[in-house]
Write a structure and sequence with these properties.
This protein is an alpha+beta fold. It has one domain. It is 56% helix and 16% strand. The protein has a three-stranded antiparallel β-sheet. Helix 2 crosses helix 4. Keywords: Membrane, Transmembrane, Transmembrane helix. It comes from Streptomyces diacarni. This is Putative Flp pilus-assembly TadG-like N-terminal domain-containing protein. Pfam families: Tad.
Length: 159
């Protein structure tokens, strides 16, 4: 009888080892962790990609408004002398007016210093605005600030 008992115990132990080797408990946790990391990476690119587009649009909008603001500084004496046919821009003041507008728009002092007139004449001004921002979620992987630019032109038109 003792021989039979030993064989049964050996068979039970062998069956337990086979079940333990085939046990897949915990394998779902690895898949969940992998999908969670993938989801976070994709969310980071979606959120920060949208932020990048938004900041580029903001830089272009500020550039358009700064160009209009610089172009509104017209030579009133020349306008009166031409009886309203010609409104030359005081283009010498372009850099100062762009810096003033950029400062009022809430840009950092470094961005205000890097922004300015690209070209200016009595008929038109071209303005370039620099905007620096930090990414929200990709900042976990990439900590440097990102820079975008916006450029716009404004003309003096009468009539």
């Amino acid at each position: 009888m003792s021989r039979v008992l030993v064989r049964v115990r050996g068979a039970v132990a062998s069956a337990r080892r086979v079940r333990a080797a085939c046990d897949d408990r915990g394998s779902g946790a690895a898949a969940v962790i992998m999908f969670a990391l993938l989801f976070m990476v994709l969310a980071a690119f979606v959120v920060d990609g949208g932020l990048s587009i938004s900041q580029r649009e903001r830089a272009a909008d500020i550039a358009e408004q700064a160009a209009r603001y610089a172009a509104q500084d017209i030579d009133e004496e020349a306008l009166r002398a031409s009886e309203g046919r010609n409104a030359p821009i005081n283009y010498e003041n372009c850099a100062a007016r762009v810096a003033e507008f950029a400062g009022r728009s809430g840009l950092s002092s470094a961005d205000v210093a890097a922004s300015g007139c690209v070209s200016a004449s009595a008929q038109q001004v071209e303005v370039r605005i620099r905007l620096t921002y930090r990414p929200v979620l990709t900042g976990l992987f990439y900590s440097a600030p990102l820079t975008v630019h916006g450029t716009a032109t404004a003309e003096s038109v009468t009539g």
